[in-house]
Amino acid sequence: MSTTTVETVSSGPPNVQEGKPFNLNQNIPVGPASLQLRGPVYLSSYDCDIAVAIQVLPLTPAIKVGNLKGNLQDGVTTTVKIAKANGSVTLFKREDKLWVRANLLINGAIHNVEFGIMPLRKRSEEKA
Fold first, then answer.
1. Region of 120 on the Ramachandran plot (φ > 0 left; ψ -120 to 50 alpha; else beta)
2. What is the pLDDT of residue 25?
3. Which of 3-17, 75-89, 113-127 bottoms out in mean pLDDT, i.e. has the lowest?
4. Distances from the Cα of 29 to the Cαs of 3, 52, 91, 96, in angstroms?
5. Is the separation of the CB atoms in 118 and 23 below 8 Å?
6. Where is the composition biased (Polar residues) (predicted)?
7. Cβ neighbourhood burial of 94 (10 Å; 0-12, 13-18, 19+)
8. DSSP helix/strand/coil, 127
9. DSSP assignment of 55-84
């Protein structure tokens, strides 16, 4: 079993126009796989609609396993069930940061990952 917690990888909050979403495009290593998160995050409301895919081997295509749609303050979870991987992926807000938690069984090995993706405050809010 592997357990990994990584703090924020982004140096600052996204710079987006008022009312426009931030388009998340993140690849996160989870054991021998890559967890791919793609889609909009609305910083003003914390709503998101993120497609989740897993690429188990480097030479295989990513397989869409679900959507994370809802409010980050509540946390949004999808269940993963494919031949080589199963478990859950949760996207949530903690201390004004966007986090992902993946609890996955991949090729018979358990991988628990918490990964800080980015701050959720807009740059203009940071100076206030």
1. alpha
2. 94
3. 3-17
4. 12, 13, 15, 23
5. no
6. 1-14
7. middle
8. helix
9. E-STTSPPEEEEEEEEETTT-EEEEEE-SS
Q: What distance in Å separates the CA atoms of residue 42 and residue 21, rounded to the nearest whole number? A: 4
State pTM to two decimals. 0.83
Q: Are 89 and 30 in contact (CB under 8 A)?
A: no
Q: How many CB atoms lie within 10 A of CB 58?
A: 8
Domain locations in the chain? 2-120
Distances (CA, A) of 69 to 16, 32, 42, 49, 60: 20, 26, 11, 4, 26
**Amino acid code (one letter) for 17:** Q
